[in-house]
Amino acid sequence: MALLRTRWRAGSVRATGPVLVSVTDFTCAHTLDLPRAFRAGMALRRSWPDLEGAVGLWLWTDLRRRRCGSVSVWTGDAALRGFVAWPPHVAVMRRFRRRGTIRADTWWADAFDPAGTWERAERALAQAEAGAGSQVNDASR
Prior knowledge:
The chain has helices at residues 33-46, 77-85, 87-96, 114-129; strands at 4-5, 9-10, 19-28, 54-62, 67-74, 100-109, 135-138. By secondary structure, the protein is α+β, with helices and mostly antiparallel strands.
């Protein structure tokens, strides 16, 4: 798997204890949607330092497989749910919900370890590619 990722974008808080990690994986149905989806993610990324409970994130893409997504780190469930319900995020999800398949995976870590988090995220993405991920929406149905 040939993932390209952005630099780490710090959020509003510094992790000092357990963190919730969320990995999203969007596979575009059409090649032309990939740059649009990635740009939408970059627009959301600009607001990351202002989001309550956001430790930070990476955005990633796999050009050959028409995939992109994020690895985000949160202080807890409430912070992640707040982001999911955040109007700019809801607008992006509505815009792309019928343009591909999105999968998500989450887990708790005792502490934020950037290298370890990224390694586990890569494993989760490889498993999703092999068909073992949690599917949220499939536009092909």
